[in-house]
Amino acid sequence: MKILGLSVLLVVSVSASDFDVPPAPAPEAPVWVAVDHADLAKAGLPAFPISGVPEITDGRTAVFKVRPDMLPVLSQFMHDNFKRCGGYFAHSTKAAAQASMRPTVVVAAGPYTLDQQAVVTPLVAAVTESGIRATIDKLAAFNNRYYQSETGVTASNWILARWSELAAKIPGASVELFAHASWKQPSVILTIPGSEFPDEIVVLGGHLDSISGWGNSGARAPGADDNASGIAVLTEAARVIAESGVRPKRTIQFMGYAAEEVGLRGSQEIAAKYSTGGKKVIGVIQFDMSNFKGTGAGIYFLTDFVDPTLSAFTAKLATQYSGVTAFTTKCGYACSDHASWTKKGFPSAMAFEATFDDSNKAIHSERDTLATSGGDASHSIPFAKLSVAFALELAKTAPAAVKVTSR
Ligand code: BES
Ligand code: ZN
Q1: Percent of the chain predicted with pLDDT > 90
Q2: Which ligand 1 atom is the nearest neighbour of the CA of 207?
Q3: Does domain 106-398 have CATH number 3.40.630.10?
């Protein structure tokens, strides 16, 4: 069967064995792609490049089993027809694709309060441009951070080591790899346990992988903006919090996601695991591209595939703490990992560098260097400030330990 028309909701997922050493990847393992029936019904488009009968279908979605080497072909098709590269979800097992079709329990967003100024204001002042730039320089120096390449794995391990240095300054904090069964590159998670409500989790994330063209393990893909900048923002926020001595009441987790560029695969596995594990994630923020001055000063909050209540509150935090104005924009499709959390019913927001139209056009090429973003990390400073504020206003802070001196 040939399918005409679409806008794909490509679903691909994997069974994750969490917090282990990554197993040997199975690069030829098939993926399960879920296509929206409404999109299939759209007439007048060239042939959708998947043939065959769907393995699963309901009123809304049809799931096809495809070879992983078809994903770049689908991406090309999306680009040609919809002016975007992917905009799909991908799953590595049929069961995961099926699970993703089931309605999820939606976590109510908030109420969120802004009341930590006494602690957060001095902390945001400690954010530095050089701190952010150092991480971008380091990550962009890997040949690429492709999810199937050796350097993609080395990059994850570099983040593991850097975040471990920071965690060592925080009592009880730890850093772990989150292994993915179907590919080599692990995700990385830094956990700062909450002192009062450790089961309630605040997630700050960004993808650590990069890609050039339609995916090639050897291609040069510095990904300085997409998305070394997001990982740099998270790392700078974690540094400031670690060095401050401030401790959260709720648990804070910083996440570097693997395999975003090939269908939000790393974040989908993590969000699925948190959902089935009944984890109480009270808010998620995504940083994906923060360093390109396409529109000018400002933080641009996406309005699609996000939680509106959390996004409005996060814009308030930006106004209070980042030093720049909060604006809105939209991708028009599930363009980054915030969508994985939204799909699983968790409240999620996404802070972006510019309007969608003014964003960095050098991404996914060897031209996505720091030089293309102006040679410094200044545009990312407000994002790191927002990151500190988001972590501590959502998690709230424990009162500073009182020093008792006896005489
Ligand atoms: N950082 C981009 C998303 C993006 C690009 C947002 C330009 C805003 C402007 C992300 O890493 C990416 O490339 N996403 C893919 C979708 C994914 C599901 C493969 C895309 O946009 O095609
Ligand atoms: Zn990205």
Answers
A1: 70
A2: 11
A3: yes
Contacts of 395 by beta carbon, 8 Å cutoff, 6+ apart? 194, 202, 248, 249, 250, 251, 252
Residues annotated as catalytic are: 207, 226, 260-261, 288, 364
What is the residue whose two structure tokens read 């990151």? 387
The letter for the amino acid at 256 is G
Intervals of the chain under pLDDT 70:
1-28, 38-47, 72, 76, 79-87, 103, 401-407
Q: How many whole angstroms from 288 Cα to the centroid of ligand 2?
A: 5
State residue 141's pLDDT score: 98
Domain with CATH 3.40.630.10 in the chain: 106-398
Asked whether the whole model's pTM tops 0.85, one would answer: yes
Q: Count Cβ neighbours within 10 Å for each residue of 118-141 and write b for 16 or more, e otherwise.
A: ebbeebbebbeeebbbbbbebbbe
Q: According to the model, what pLDDT value does residue 106 have?
A: 82
**How high does pLDDT run on average in the chain?**
88
Residues contacting residue 27 through CB under 8 Å, at least 6 positions apart: 68, 148, 183
DSSP 64-94: EEE-GGGHHHHHHHHHHHHSSS------SSH
Which residue from 261, 353, 355, 361 has its CB within 8 A of the most atoms of ligand 1, so it is best to mutate? 261
